[in-house]
């Protein structure tokens, strides 16, 4: 049955508008067109920035209690239309309906946390009398909103990653302009409806859809935009960093996440967690498991169990609750992953499971004997492929884990606390998950990486600090009254 094609509007400074030029959003599972979405012009983006700056000037002291109310009402709206949000994520993207429902739950939590943290964005008093001669000075520092935030979001978490930009920005008192991924803009537009329904001040939120190559540069380079927060690939991140000029930049640029499994680990837990971490969202996950290093005494048992569990995964219709893994976001991405697999095999890799492609679907794939110089080993796969390798000891595993240009998160499975702390201290990553795979996150924790994985930290409270500045106030008391 042919899906009815929707005609969407975009949100510019509080007004929902159509555009003369549009682009198609397709369901990657069957390539059916599901919506025609406005393709914004440079003038649209400039107007949104101007209106955001004007709104901020007129409401720079937006009361905290009003921010809290707007955020909670937006979360209420999402709860009320929970299934609509879930179906939107699953239809326009790669996630199964079960995974989409999980993302909606997390989005609600992200926005609720933003409301809670709005009341906690505080300064502190300063003891000026710690310096000799400053006994008659008192003061404090406080945080204030920086102004217009420009946010660019990816396709793989089309709702919650947008919430991670909007929630902290509004909680800190800033207007925010969202440029969502063109493959999955519908979730961001639906989230914008939740916030307009909640009463976000006019001009404080825009969701501008269209080609990044056309409307990205005016957003990034505008002097009125005080911060750029970007989640995406490293090449785009490098370009943004060069264009942005002197302003705050926060970037999450992906990873090539390792998991270490030691001989004393609970193998069943390590297998279950790592299979899920490798193949959730068809492997299109920045903290997804890509390389697994297994201590040699348990390597064969781990590998066999991992292969068996992988082969049990149900690949197919993402709208079925029985499906474990759906398609990749686009057939061209599936073709890329297939080519990387074939290149690795040519260089000596062995396919232990999967390896085949059908349209946008790639089978969950397990590789061994992968060359450390191959593209699939050194770069971010961003697809349903995992590499498993035997190591002789923890130190070797840590050295290999660090031998890439990424460092977002890592996992280690062990019952030995000394081994756990060795990994914590020596893995070059932003987060170490002990007895979990790399694919674990809660929305309040600081989230970000080192090396090529990015700059700064997300996680609501930590993003709010990035989206605010400090001001120091000092009073010199010149007329000290006697007793």
TrEMBL record:
EC top class named in words: oxidoreductase
Keyword Transmembrane helix belongs to the record: no
Gene Ontology molecular-function annotations: lactaldehyde dehydrogenase (NAD+) activity
Regions annotated as coiled coil: none
Gene3D superfamilies the record matches: Aldehyde Dehydrogenase, Chain A, domain 1, Aldehyde Dehydrogenase, Chain A, domain 2
Record-annotated membrane-spanning stretches: none
Keyword Disulfide bond tagged: no
CDD domains cross-referenced by the UniProt entry: ALDH_y4uC (cd07149)
EC number: 1.2.1.97
UniProt keywords, alphabetically: Oxidoreductase
Top-rank taxon, per record: Bacteria
Catalytic reaction list: (2S)-3-sulfolactaldehyde + NAD(+) + H2O = (2S)-3-sulfolactate + NADH + 2 H(+)
Domain Aldehyde dehydrogenase: 18-473
Function, in words: Part of the sulfo-TAL (or sulfo-SFT) pathway, a D-sulfoquinovose degradation pathway that produces sulfolactate (SL). Catalyzes the oxidation of 3-sulfolactaldehyde (SLA) to sulfolactate (SL).
UniProt xrefs under PANTHER family: ALDEHYDE DEHYDROGENASE
Family, per entry: Belongs to the aldehyde dehydrogenase family.
Name of this chain's protein: 3-sulfolactaldehyde dehydrogenase
Organism the protein comes from: Salisediminibacterium beveridgei
């Amino acid at each position: 049955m042919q899906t009815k094609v929707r005609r969407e509007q975009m949100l510019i400074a509080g007004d929902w508008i159509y555009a003369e030029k549009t682009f198609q959003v397709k369901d990657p599972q069957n390539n059916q067109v599901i919506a025609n979405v406005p393709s914004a012009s440079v003038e649209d983006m400039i107007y949104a920035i101007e209106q955001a700056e004007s709104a901020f000037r007129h409401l720079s002291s937006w009361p905290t209690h009003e921010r809290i109310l707007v955020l909670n009402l937006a979360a209420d709206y999402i709860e009320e239309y929970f299934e609509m949000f879930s179906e939107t994520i699953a239809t326009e993207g790669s996630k199964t309906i079960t995974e989409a429902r999980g993302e909606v739950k997390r989005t609600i939590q992200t926005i609720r946390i933003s409301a809670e943290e709005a009341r906690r964005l505080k300064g502190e008093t300063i003891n000026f009398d710690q310096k000799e001669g400053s006994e008659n000075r008192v003061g404090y520092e406080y945080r204030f909103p920086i102004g217009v935030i420009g946010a660019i979001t990816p396709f793989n978490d089309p709702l919650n990653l947008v919430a991670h930009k909007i929630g902290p920005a509004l909680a800190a008192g800033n207007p925010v302009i969202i440029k969502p991924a063109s493959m999955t803009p519908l979730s961001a537009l639906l989230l914008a409806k939740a916030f307009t329904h909640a009463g976000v001040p006019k001009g404080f939120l825009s969701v501008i859809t269209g080609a990044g190559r056309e409307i990205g540069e005016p957003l990034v380079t505008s002097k009125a935009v005080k911060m750029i927060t970007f989640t995406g690939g490293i090449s785009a991140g490098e370009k943004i960093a060069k264009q942005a000029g002197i302003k705050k930049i926060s970037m999450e640029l992906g990873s090539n996440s390792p998991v270490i499994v030691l001989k004393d680990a609970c193998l069943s837990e390590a297998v279950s967690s790592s299979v899920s971490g490798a193949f959730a969202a068809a492997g299109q996950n920045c903290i997804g498991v890509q390389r697994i290093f297994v201590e040699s005494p348990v390597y064969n048992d781990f590998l066999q169990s991992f292969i068996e569990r992988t082969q049990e995964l149900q690949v197919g219709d993402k709208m079925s609750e029985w499906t474990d893994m759906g398609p990749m976001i686009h057939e061209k991405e599936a073709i890329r992953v297939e080519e990387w697999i074939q290149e690795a095999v040519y260089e000596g890799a062995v396919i232990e499971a999967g390896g085949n492609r059908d349209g946008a679907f790639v089978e969950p794939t397990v590789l061994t004997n992968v060359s450390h110089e191959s593209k699939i080993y050194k770069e971010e796969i961003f697809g349903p492929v995992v590499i498993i390798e035997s190591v002789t000891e923890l130190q070797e595993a840590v050295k290999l884990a660090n031998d890439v240009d990424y460092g977002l998160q890592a996992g280690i499975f062990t019952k030995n606390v000394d081994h756990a702390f060795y990994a914590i201290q020596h893995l070059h990553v932003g987060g170490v998950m002990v007895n979990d795979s790399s694919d674990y996150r809660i929305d309040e924790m600081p989230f970000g990486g080192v090396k090529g994985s990015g700059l700064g930290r997300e996680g609501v409270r930590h993003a709010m600090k990035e989206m605010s500045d400090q001001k120091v106030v000092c009073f010199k008391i010149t007329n000290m009254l006697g007793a």
